[in-house]
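Hi everyone,

Forwarding the result from last night's run.
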Amino acid sequence: GWLHLAHGVRGCAAGLRYVIYLYMTDLQDPSKLIAEPAGHLMGPIGDERIGDVSNVLFTNGWIADEDGKVFLYYASSDTRMHVATSTVEKLVDYCLNSPADGYTSAASVETLKKQIEKNLSLKVKV
């Protein structure tokens, strides 16, 4: 599929904040959404929350090297530029294996419980 990077507003207890999302569409039909992980890929933390327009992260673009390393360029609070790194493999894994949003607290708790159970079953016994 196609990986898409976007920024948008998200409500939180402290008000609104702008965060970065990642989602995937079908390779043959990019209008067809195939993966939409819950939550957000990145949100402002620490000093990223302070600036001309506080509590904001937005994407400026990204590039991938031939070896699959991804450089994600973003800005925080309309004040600073940053770069984060990942890999195509990790971003695809995040998209395809992060659960979709349940849109309620109860649904989110159930999703977390299932993820914890799954992760505990993967624990290596020593």
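The longest strand covers residues 2-12.

Cheers,
N.
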